Amino acid sequence: MHHTPEPDATPDPALPADPAVRLAAVLGALTPWPEDGDRADGPVAVDATDRLLLDEAAPLLAAAGPDDVVVVGDRFGALTLGALTLGPATVRASTDAVTAEAALQHHRGEPLMDAVRGDRPEVDVTSFDHLEARLFEGARLVLMQLPSSLAELTEIAEAIARVAAPDVTVLAGGRVKHMTRSMNEVLGASFTDVRASLARQKSRVLVASGVRPEARDAAPAFPARAVLRDAELLTAGTPAGGSTPSGVTVVAHGGTFAGPALDLGTRFLLTTAGKWPAADRVHDALDLGSGTGLLATVLALRYPDARVVGTDRSAAAVASTRATAEANGVGDRVVVLRGDAGEDLEPASVDLILLNPPFHDRSAVRTDAAHRMFRAAGRALRQGGELWCVFNTALHYRQALTRSVGPTVHIEQNPKFTVTRSRRR
Ligand SMILES: C[S@@+](CC[C@H](N)C(=O)[O-])C[C@H]1O[C@@H](n2cnc3c(N)ncnc32)[C@H](O)[C@@H]1O
């Protein structure tokens, strides 16, 4: 949890008192930061869903008290700063992507905060890393951008229902093309009333209220745990001269990529483990974009003397990677970091990197993050260090890998996936 109160400010007498006018000024000033063309979230700082959510929430925000409002899944700060403008001077917030958190922090240092504050001496956001109980405790209004997966929505809905005020209202907005009836059903498992707003500019808001009494103390569905016995996983997790584990436990929060299972691409990467560097060459190993952390755990099992780092931009992934490593008895050797595309990794500090890069952002195929990860891998590897990457064969990453890291060879290929090895020059 981070608590960063705004510095005291003298209200500007020229500022309009009308919150709706101030909101227009705030939303108009937001930028999609960092605007580098690489953002998986897309270039629009305030989308139609943000605007619809804030319009639907406006009367509830105006009536809300200091500890009432929680924002989940904000993209660039529109919902959080919008809620602060229209509602109480304190808001709790949590975003899965570290990049979204950075965007909010960035905007909080800007002149637009004058319009957010209005005539109040200060406003305050308390940020939470993941869906801990304190995020929703006693909440009476939750604003959220619908997550892309039903599992993530389930985890959020259950977390709200467990500890929010019984009269909590949840406003969950999304693009109509990404919304399914199943989302209503997921919300309906935790709340008695679920209705949909009219669509506006291809966005819609689901409104859930009435916490189901049985949802108060139901066992949480997430994080999900499973013991995997896939041969590729067990073989790759066997150290030289050591014994093969009987199973590898995976712990998956709702927002993780593969859930409590082995992804097909990751499985294909694991089939090449026999060709990865020998243990005497691997002192530091990295799972870049770690998801549930199965690859980080395999690295720690296979190389018992190595230091392993797992990194991901997603809070759900970071929590899962940590829990997966602990569940397999290697928690003390796996350091888990939350960062954007590995950009904050120490240069020339790693001997072996495993990477199954992201290629989907909702339904759009995007490869920006993958290219930034290649560049980060190139910087993080020691000379002679190796990046092992799996990707959809159709993506033809070899040239980009050669440019960003060094000489790249195809190690395995099937019609669906390719595994490459790139050696740092
Ligand atoms: C294809 S999944 C692979 C997950 C895991 N390594 C596995 O094999 O199951 C890609 C991962 O990259 C993460 N990711 C996406 N964009 C990222 C970014 N900009 N920075 C860091 N991680 C990112 C996702 O959260 C996801 O966990």
Describe the structure.
The protein has two domains: 2-216, Vaccinia Virus protein VP39 (Rossmann fold, 3-Layer(aba) Sandwich); 224-423, Rossmann fold. The protein is built from 15 helices and 19 strands. The strands form four sheets. Strands 1-4-3-2-5-6-8-7 form an eight-stranded mixed β-sheet. Strands 13-12-11-14-17-19-18 form a seven-stranded mixed β-sheet, sandwiched between helices. Helix content is 33%, strand content 25%. It is globular and about 70 Å long. It is an alpha/beta fold and 425 residues long. The longest helix has 16 residues, at 48-63. Mean pLDDT is 92; it is low at 7-11. Helix 12 links the parallel strand 11 and strand 12. Bound molecules: S-adenosylmethionine (SAM).
Q: Helix proportion of residues, in percent?
A: 25-40%
Radius of gyration: 23 Å
Bound molecules: S-adenosylmethionine
Summing up helix and strand content along with how strands pair, one would put the structural category as alpha/beta
Q: If helices are DSSP runs of H or I spanning 4 or more residues, what is the number of helices?
A: 15
CATH class of the largest domain: Alpha Beta
User: What name is given to the CATH topology of the largest domain?
Assistant: Rossmann fold
Query: How many distinct folded domains?
Result: 2
How would you describe the shape?
A: globular
pLDDT average, as an integer? Answer: 92
Known CATH architecture of the largest domain: 3-Layer(aba) Sandwich
- Find the count of extended strands (DSSP E, 2+ residues): 19
